[in-house]
Amino acid sequence: MKSVVVTELGYVGVGIRDIDAWRFLLSDIFGMEWVAENDKIKLRLDNWHNRVILHPGQKEDLLYAGFRVSGVEEFRMMREHLTASNVSFELASPAEAAERCVLELLRLKDPAGVPLEIFHGPRVDRHRPFRPGRGMHGKFCTGPGGLGHIGIRVVDADQSYRFYSQILGMRGSVETITQFGPQIVTPTFMDCNTRDHTVAFSPVPIETSIHHLMVEVDSIDDVGLAYDMIQKRGIPIIATIGRHSNDSAISFYIQSPSGWALEYGCNTSASKSQSEYNVAEVWGHEFHFPVGK
């Protein structure tokens, strides 16, 4: 059978409680376009109809991460591949796919129970200009790299690696070996496009399916402006502004209103064709707050 791979993290859906806090953070500080649609909030970062979907009143966790395949033929091959690999999935109805603003959709879970969706044919609203929530120096970096990257829960790192590589077609390796006190952490980073990594996981226990979501802008001034606003508002900073060694991102991490983390950054490097690892950040990223409520 011809191999089939996912091409990007297209969107995420999360449950939230505090709508006002999320609006202030994602729209007023990060610059996403906030659009209320029926009982959901659909946030735009570009000309896609939605990239981040908020479900008010639901469990404060990742509800789904949507991974794209190229088209209808690849979607069919993915269904056949999942069946042949004994991976359980549910095919969404046309109405459910329309609700997500895609042509076709299926649902499944990874080995750690993280809820995923595979789709093709997202709705792209080129007729509707992107209107940022605040004035921005630049724009969000999406395009071939997708929405950004996501850090997720893992129970067995080897099992998750096999799933994301053999089932979803990603490539990955350990890119950093970092020591936190007595503990050495070796996260795995998986890529599927030009972005250094689209999925990251580490054998560090977390309560939620999501550890963090990273979105990228193309101007360091937007990162600096957001960082200033975060500090002035007293929003908990998990990691100060700094530069990663593995993907070169200049970024900072904050605790979201739901407890898990958000990373906001710029200047990420492209995915690598050969493995390497780093043992320290280039600079910054001093950790202050644990992720979680």
Main attributes of the structure:
about 290 residues, alpha+beta, 2,3-Dihydroxybiphenyl 1,2-Dioxygenase, domain 1, 2 domains, nine-stranded mixed sheet, 5 helices, 19 strands
Protein described:
The protein is of the alpha+beta class and 293 residues long. It has two domains: 8-122, 2,3-Dihydroxybiphenyl 1,2-Dioxygenase, domain 1; 143-284, 2,3-Dihydroxybiphenyl 1,2-Dioxygenase, domain 1. 19% of the residues lie in helices and 34% in strands. The chain is built from five helices and 19 strands. It has helices at 19-29, 72-84, 94-99, 157-167, 220-233; strands at residues 8-16, 33-37, 40-44, 52-56, 62-68, 90-91, 102-109, 115-122, 149-152, 171-174, 178-180, 183-185, 188-191, 199-201, 210-217, 237-243, 250-255, 261-266, 283-284. The strands form three sheets. It has a nine-stranded mixed β-sheet. Strand 17 (250-255) and strand 18 form a beta hairpin.
Instruction: Count structural domains.
Output: 2
CATH architecture annotation of the largest domain: Roll
| Mass-distribution shape | globular
What's the CATH H-level superfamily name of the largest domain?
A: 2,3-Dihydroxybiphenyl 1,2-Dioxygenase, domain 1
The proportion of strand residues reads 25-35%
Q: What is the fold-level CATH name, i.e. the topology of the largest domain?
A: 2,3-Dihydroxybiphenyl 1,2-Dioxygenase, domain 1
Helix content: 10-25%
Q: Quick one: biggest sheet? A: 9 strands, mixed
Q: How many extended strands? A: 19
Integer average pLDDT: 95
C-alpha Rg (nearest Å): 18 Å
Question: Can you summarize this structure?
Answer:
The protein has two domains: 115 residues, Roll (2,3-Dihydroxybiphenyl 1,2-Dioxygenase, domain 1); 142 residues, 2,3-Dihydroxybiphenyl 1,2-Dioxygenase, domain 1, CATH 3.10.180. It contains five helices and 19 strands.
